[in-house]
Amino acid sequence: MMTGPKLRDVEIQPIQHQGQAMILLRDPLRLGEAAIAIPQALAPVLGLMDGTRDEAALQAAFTIRIGMRLVPGLLSQLVADLDKAYLLDNERSAAAIAATLKAYREAPFRPMGSAGSSFPADPAEAAIQLQGYADASAPAAIGQEMGPVRGVISPHIDYQRGGPVYGEVWRAAAQAANDADLAIIFGTDHQGSNGTLTLTRQSYATPWGVLPTDQALVDKLADALGSEIAFAEELHHAHEHSIELAAVWLHFVRGGRPVALLPILCGSFGGFVAGEGDPAAHEPFDAVLRVLQASIGSRRVLVVAAADLAHIGPAFGDPYGLDFIARAQLRSADERLLSAVYAGDAAAFFDTLKAEGDRRRVCGLPPIYLALRLLETASGQPAGYAVCPADPQGLSFVTIAGAVLR
Predict the structure, then answer these.
(1) What homologous superfamily does CATH list for 113-405?
(2) How many CA atoms lie within 13 A of 70 on its CB side?
(3) If I label 18, which of 85, 138, 263, 295 is the partner at 20 to 30 A Cα–Cα?
(4) d(Cα 267, Cα 234) in Å, to the nearest integer?
């Protein structure tokens, strides 16, 4: 029974403010515009906010664990600030979620979330930017003898860091993208629950217009999953960038011509990596893949996994940064992982990450795994790789890779 404040799932980022170690708390659903920064010393209080303790019990538990008392009034102010920012799991945030979801569903389309940051909203300016990345990228050494392109792995990092890899992927897949009458995009849901697949009936906007979501196919998948499960985390589509950043490139290489879209957000594999179940025997995955394989046999389909690879360094919670040797080891680990992708082996791809405990935080695990499962017999070839900086100190990195699946 909940008797006190309970923290919602929030984005937590360590920061430095005026020489002080702080923690920045932000709502992934963007119910409110405000983010909250609190001293790092108060972090244990957040961990205690599970709904079972009132403020007096929180104060006592903090004192027992840390050995010091909070300044009088500080805890009450913290709870009030969290509530104001909709960061607590209570009736106020539930009402805000319901209203925000209603507005999202009633909008004519999903508006662009990364316009102005990753790419311009203006179509002419966006075309110049993306064409520049494509022109600067190396042509992928991919032979036609392997058969037509059936899918791609495309990053979801911002274009400023990942532009050349995006360019290489989408240059190699341009013909397939233009021939397609359906694009299925599996995107990482960075806030998704374990083993979830989240649908939406909303279409995705890009600088060149709207890519219409295939409503009939969404309905079939919702029937297979159960609507309550299929749309339980639908609001994640509103601000999750992974699908959008692939959809923009898809629309660009098609010269602005629309194509039917099936956007699917893929939740965490954390439970599977920890041994709590097996994705190969996860019924929701089987149900979705059965419907897709039965529905797309007569269509010209491009399957996209919008996926980054490793996230390493202090920016992601590691105690140490990466030197030159560690970066070389990181690349070698990625190459071993990608060999399973090129073999089209979803099980080997998952097993490789499970064996290492996913200590490199490969957020692209769910979409890549599911794309390989859907394509079954596809084999892949490289289409770009980069180690991207993730902090000003040059100690943290995100790795990205492109691949074409035939």
Answers:
(1) LigB-like (3.40.830.10)
(2) 23
(3) 85
(4) 11
Encoded tokens for 33: 């515009």
CB-count burial class (<10 Å; 0-12, 13-18, 19+) for 133: buried
- Asked if residues 258 and 211 have their Cβ atoms less than 8 Å apart, the reply is yes
Cα 72 to the center of its chain, rounded Å? 40
E strand or H helix at 22: strand 20-26
Are 263 and 187 spatial neighbours (Cβ–Cβ below 8 Å)? yes
Contact in structure between 124 and 277 (CB atoms under 8 Å): no
CA-closest candidate to residue 258, choices 166, 178, 151, 168? 178
* 3-class DSSP state of 382: strand
156 SS3 class:
coil
- Taking only the tens place, the pLDDT of each residue in 117-176 is 999 999 999 999 999 999 988 776 555 556 799 999 999 999 999 999 999 999 999 999
Distance CA 47, CA 78 (A): 13
202: CB partners within 8 A, 6+ apart: 104, 105, 107, 109, 110, 213, 237
pLDDT digits (tens, 9 = 90+) for 12-62: 888 888 888 899 999 999 998 778 999 988 889 999 999 999 999 999 999
| pLDDT > 90 in the chain, percent | 83
* Tokens 């919008």, residue located: 306
The residue assigned the tokens 């392109």 is 149
Of the candidates 287, 387, 277, 389, the residue with the CA atom closest to the CA atom of residue 332: 387
What does the block give as tokens for 39? 């001293």
Residues β-bridged to residue 46 = none
Tens of pLDDT, residues 307-343: 999 999 998 989 999 999 999 999 999 999 999 999 9
Q: According to DSSP H, which parts of 182-258 are helical?
A: 215-225, 227-230, 236-239, 242-253
Q: Is 185 helix (H, G, I), strand (E, B) or coil?
A: strand
What is the C-alpha separation between 387 and 201, in angstroms, rounded? 35
Amino acid at 237: H
Q: What is the pTM (predicted TM-score) of this model?
A: 0.93
Task: Please give the structure tokens belonging to residue 27.
Answer: 């709502």
Residues carrying CATH 3.40.830.10, the chain: 113-405
pLDDT tens per residue, range 179-204: 999 999 999 999 999 999 999 999 99
